[in-house]
Each structure stands twice: as structure tokens, then as C-alpha cells.
Design brief:
Elements (H helix, E strand, L loop, with lengths): L5 E8 L9 E10 L2 E4 L5 E4 L2 E8 L8 H13 L7 E3 L3 H11 L4 E2 L5 E4 L14 H12 L35 H10 L3
Parallel strand pairs: 5-6
Antiparallel strand pairs: 1-2, 2-5, 3-4, 6-8, 7-8
């Protein structure tokens, strides 16, 4: 988890003592990920925001405020606002939770599994420690400004009927029949 810059927040009930150690109520896993996301104009953006990777509160203690307590603690520790987060494959329960407690409702459609909300691009996303690439980029910026690339438009989506499954049996190699076994045997013999 350290090499991935992931952090797991665990909420423990110390009063529950099945083995004298308490009981885990839930956890929240977050981490910085490099993502390519679309803004509201459908322009590609490379960002490295804090992402919600996993969030779970045990069913027996849901709707008691534990999820909000854990989520609020993470926001405070990570110094982020809820709209600055990218959420990896959120469940409907998590989306309803974010809407209820943080008024996050309007999403910006993405082509990946992450969900971002309106306001995501209001602030710059900075990873906790600058990467080597970012250091080189800042040196280049100090040397002189470079013009920004214009946002690219995506090609129009194809209709579902145009997409075909990919299979090696569908490929045409253009090789003579019987070529593969002979070449495989020759390669296996070192020739």
C-alpha cells in the first residue's frame, strides 16, 4: 500500500470485545491515481487526484452515522473537499451517501470506471509529493512558457451494433495453410 500511496482508514468499536480487542465497524481506502478524465467540454485532462478506492461499513451498523464520521475524518486528514475526489466504481449506496451528506449529485460523464462530480476541475489536483516528471515539467516552465495544447474532441461514438468481439479465430494472418506448426517446430529445434 505504501508504494501505491494508498491509505486505509479503519473505524473500530472499542466497546465491542469479542476477543478483548474490539470490532472493526468499517474502512475507507483512498489513494492518488493518475487518471485521464473528461471535463464538461469533453476535453481530456491528465490529473492525479485523491481517489476513493473502497468504502465499507458493516451492514449491522449502517445508518448510525459511522460512514459519515469515517468519511469526514478522511476529508479532514487529506485536506480535500468532497467534489475534488474521484470515486472508483461507486455503488448506488455510495452515490446516495455522497448526495445526502455532501450534495454531490451532478456527475461529469467519463469513459473509465471513475466518477467525478461537478466542481472537480475547480481546483488543481496535486499529488502529495512531486514526481520526477513534475519536477522536470516545472524546470521547463521556469525556462519559458510553452503554449497550451488545444482541447481535443473525441470521435463520435459508434453504435453498439458496430462493435465486434475480438477473437484470434477471426483474424486472417495471410499465411500459407500449415505454416504455423512447421514454424513452431523449427523454432523449438533452434532453427
Amino acid at each position: 500500500m505504501q508504494s501505491n500511496r494508498h491509505v486505509i482508514y479503519v473505524l473500530k468499536d472499542t466497546s465491542a470485545r469479542p476477543a478483548g480487542k474490539g470490532a472493526i465497524i468499517g474502512f475507507l481506502k483512498v489513494g492518488y491515481k493518475k487518471l485521464f478524465v473528461l471535463d464538461d467540454r469533453e476535453a481530456h485532462n491528465e490529473v492525479e487526484p485523491l481517489c476513493i478506492l473502497d468504502f465499507y461499513i458493516h451492514e449491522s451498523v449502517q445508518r448510525h452515522g459511522h460512514g459519515r464520521e469515517l468519511f469526514q475524518y478522511m476529508l479532514q486528514k487529506e485536506r480535500v473537499e468532497p467534489h475534488q475526489l474521484a470515486i472508483d466504481r461507486p455503488s448506488q449506496k455510495l452515490l446516495k451517501f455522497l448526495n445526502k451528506h455532501y450534495n454531490l449529485e451532478t456527475t461529469v460523464p467519463q469513459v473509465n470506471n471513475f466518477v467525478i462530480f461537478e466542481g472537480f476541475f475547480a481546483h488543481q489536483h496535486r499529488p502529495p509529493a512531486p514526481s520526477l516528471r513534475a519536477t522536470r515539467h516545472s524546470r521547463a516552465a521556469a525556462a519559458g512558457p510553452t503554449p497550451a495544447a488545444p482541447p481535443r474532441k473525441l470521435p463520435p461514438k459508434r453504435a453498439e451494433g458496430d462493435i465486434k468481439p475480438y477473437s484470434s479465430s477471426d483474424r486472417e494472418w495471410g499465411l500459407p495453410q500449415g505454416w504455423w506448426p512447421k514454424a513452431a517446430a523449427t523454432a523449438a529445434m533452434g532453427g
